Amino acid sequence: MQQETILITGASGQLGSVLSKRLQDKFGVNNVIATDLRDNPSFVGQFEILDATDFEALTTIVIKYNVTQIYHMAAILSANGEKNPLLTWDINMKTLFNVLEVSRIHTISKVFFPSSIAVFGANVNRDNTPQDSNLTPSTVYGMTKAAGENWANYYYEKYGLDIRSIRYPGVIGYQSLPGGGTTDYAVDIFHKAIKNEPFECFLSEKTTLPMIYMDDAIRATIEVMDAPSVNIKTRTSYNVAGVSFNPEEITNAIRTIYPDFKVTYKPDFRQGIADSWPKSIDDTNAKNDWNWKPNYNLEAMTEDMIENLKATYLEKI
Ligand code: VAH
């Protein structure tokens, strides 16, 4: 059986940094090539600086390491994307086109493309949003993910590229800091609670959004990629649900451990983005096609986050 060699773009990002370590555990440290725009001296393993908008640079790494799978995690997220819409479109689409073309030309065996619940707009049923809802995203980030899903399906249908995708909810984890997302409040709030500092939330207290704990998000990624190709009946992207909650609910969960934790609400431009997204997700297709099931509810996530963040902060002392 051929040795799998895995290339990850955006390997220093919130998801990419955790996924890199999980893929090293699965395939071996020497068989995972982590890449990102800037060097990452603290990374343990094989790391290459890569601007994924550079087709030749990507090709060079794929050939140099005889890459067999690509996880394309690099992207500008929703909130940051709205600050420079045309640049966001250019970068998110150009990097995807490069990954698709390099994968087609060099017969990469499997590709992972992360989509997002940001592909949905305000005109769908926001409760238990169905897999096949029409996609009218309100952000450029969401537009790039909706377009990307269709390009993924096109490369599967036209070239037989085995590309798979899931629509991540807001990802929450202790291992890495998010960057430029609308759901980032749900990570920042834990850091403030641990440091016994008040938290000002940029969303209103009743803003319910679909979220997923990092461990579940990474397991969903591995499981969709491990499933037999014949089981993958959706080649745009799968709805995946973790747990839905709003700032008030996560604050109350944290207060079971930190009763005096202070939270205030000051909605900003990200409130408009959140109001256009689903409140909860119907992930029946993922359950049926590759047995998806989340393990973390709000209480389990809160407990695990606080336990691990406390350990992380203690290490820094
Ligand atoms: C964002 N964390 O906020 C990402 C994610 C569903 C949200 O796509 O942009």
From TrEMBL:
Signal sequence annotation: none
Domain NAD-dependent epimerase/dehydratase: 6-241
Entry-linked Pfam families: Epimerase (PF01370)
Record GO terms (molecular function): L-threonine 3-dehydrogenase activity
Annotated SUPFAM superfamilies: NAD(P)-binding Rossmann-fold domains
Gene3D superfamilies in alphabetical order: NAD(P)-binding Rossmann-like Domain
Superkingdom per UniProt: Bacteria
GO biological process: L-threonine catabolic process
PANTHER family the UniProt entry points to: L-THREONINE 3-DEHYDROGENASE, L-THREONINE 3-DEHYDROGENASE, MITOCHONDRIAL
Family, per entry: Belongs to the NAD(P)-dependent epimerase/dehydratase family.
Name the UniProt record assigns to this protein: NAD-dependent epimerase/dehydratase family protein
Organism: Snuella sedimenti
